[in-house]
């Protein structure tokens, strides 16, 4: 799945995993922010903050956000295909 326009970096990274980051139907914002910040740092996503809109990023950094989305979860194997 692709990026969601109108959502910031943090929400685009955590979107598929919001259920895991919530308790009693309330999203744990600290956990969401921490996961996004970790992926931004690990992948070298160039941005001012995890709150930046995706439209503010270059195409390459938008692609990194998509990779970060899936790397934020434990996996043994990633298959990437252009």
Walkthrough of the structure:
The protein is globular and about 35 Å long. With 82 residues, the chain is mainly alpha-helical. Helix 2 crosses helix 3 (59-71). The longest helix is centred in the middle third of the chain and has 15 residues, at 29-43. The mean pLDDT is 84. It has helices at 9-14, 29-43, 59-71; strands at 22-23, 26-27. It has one domain. A two-stranded antiparallel sheet has the order 1-2.
* Overall pLDDT score: 84
Helix tally? 3
Rg, please? 12 Å
SSE string, helix = H, strand = E? HEEHH
Unreliable stretches covering 5 or more consecutive residues: none
Percentage of residues in strands: under 5%
Helix content: 40-55%
The N- to C-terminal Cα distance equals 13 Å
Category from helices, strands and their pairing? mainly alpha
Q: Which outline best applies?
A: globular
For the biggest sheet, the summary is:
2 strands, antiparallel
Strands side by side in the biggest sheet: 1-2
Domain module count: 1
């Amino acid at each position: 799945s692709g990026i969601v326009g109108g959502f910031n970096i943090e929400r685009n990274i955590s979107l598929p995993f919001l259920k895991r980051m919530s308790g009693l139907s309330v999203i744990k914002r600290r956990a969401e922010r921490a996961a996004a910040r970790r992926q931004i740092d690990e992948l070298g996503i160039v941005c001012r903050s995890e709150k930046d809109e995706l439209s503010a990023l270059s195409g390459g950094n938008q692609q990194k956000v998509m990779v970060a989305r899936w790397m934020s979860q434990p996996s043994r194997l990633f298959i990437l295909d252009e």
